[in-house]
Specification:
This protein has about 325 residues and is an alpha/beta fold. It is about 30% helix and about 15% strand. The strands form 2 sheets. Strands 8-7-6-9-10-11-12 form a 7-stranded parallel sheet, sandwiched between helices. α4 packs across α6.
């Protein structure tokens, strides 16, 4: 049976992969951890050429066909999670590379979504900083009870975010391209048209899959339709929101604030204009970054290698 000799673990920003998985089950595999994201493809090819297996951390490093074709030793490519739109699955099939996913744990992005919403509405970061500086009650927050929560996208995550909103006494509305009245009602929301979603929402939370169809889905026109008191939260994918239009809306005070966990460029460069935008709570793509989820990812990665070595690959992604 095929044995894996060298495994590259990519983009381990927090340096935790080897601590949170049962890697002792693979004593014969040489494991190399890379903590940085390398954008230059030629340099990346030189780095990855010696490895016959790669563990990719979500979409931190994309694997287009041209990259996969330049890695002649690659036999097994694993992504954390059950899918990864940054990896060309068809190219893996064409090259004879096994592409496997891993399980995940729960829906940790829901937690972070509500952390951002509450931080914005109650102005928690601002007030915590003011208190440490010796100032007491310098601003008034906004309560959420009786407000309207708008969900752009109403799949698994959107429905779970809506359930919390309902528990807080919010009215939930939702839109996605194929959402029906019945499906919205089953998830505890009322389906509205896209224009009404932006016009009516006091809090707009994005839970949409990134595709060419959804890229730039939230642009200047959508932001202009929002209430000046409204909050925008994006824990989905950065390119769904037109970053320049969002920055302009924040700087001009056309919306009250934004909670952002995902960006057009990741890791975010030090000169990214969103870092200086007012009324923004920013987190470094933490939606899936919990210990429970990481343990599920890395347990699954070890299982994927073991199964590949037995000639019985598991959780194979082909499209």
């Amino acid at each position: 049976m095929p044995q894996i000799k060298r495994l590259a673990i990519l983009d381990d920003y927090q340096n935790v992969t080897l601590q949170l998985g049962p890697w002792d089950r693979l004593p014969h595999v040489e494991k190399t951890v890379f903590r940085d994201t390398m954008a230059d493809q030629d340099a990346l090819v030189e780095r990855l050429r010696p490895f016959d297996a790669i563990l990719a951390m979500r979409e931190r490093t994309p694997f287009p066909a041209k990259l996969i074709e330049r890695l002649p030793n690659l036999r097994l490519l694993i992504t954390t999670g059950e899918r990864n739109r940054g990896i060309d699955a068809a190219a893996c099939v064409a090259r004879g590379v096994t592409f496997s996913g891993t399980p995940s744990f729960g829906a940790p992005t829901v937690d972070l979504t509500w952390g951002l919403i509450l931080a914005l509405a109650r102005r928690i970061p601002e007030q915590a900083a003011a208190m440490r500086a010796g100032r007491w009650q310098t601003a008034i927050g906004t309560g959420l009870e009786g407000k309207t929560l708008g969900l752009l996208g109403f799949g698994k995550l959107g429905r779970r975010v809506a359930a919390v909103g309902k528990a807080l006494g919010m009215d939930c509305i939702a839109w996605s391209q194929n959402l029906t009245d019945e499906a919205a009602a089953q998830g505890g929301a009322r389906r509205v048209e896209k224009e009404a979603l932006f016009r009516e929402a006091d809090v707009l939370s994005i839970h949409y899959i990134l595709s060419e169809r959804s890229r730039g889905l939230v642009g200047a026109a959508e932001l202009a339709a929002m209430k000046p008191s409204a909050l925008l939260v994006n824990t989905s994918r950065g390119p769904i929101v037109d970053q320049a239009a969002l920055i302009a809306a924040l700087k001009e005070g056309r919306i009250a604030g934004a909670g952002i966990d995902v960006y057009d460029i990741e890791p975010v460069p030090a000169d990214h204009p969103l870092l200086s935008a007012p009324n923004a709570v920013l987190t470094p793509h933490l939606g899936y970054c919990t210990e429970d989820n990481y343990r599920a990812y890395f347990q699954g990665a070890v299982e994927a290698i073991e199964a590949f070595e037995k000639g019985q690959p598991i959780r194979v992604i082909t499209g």
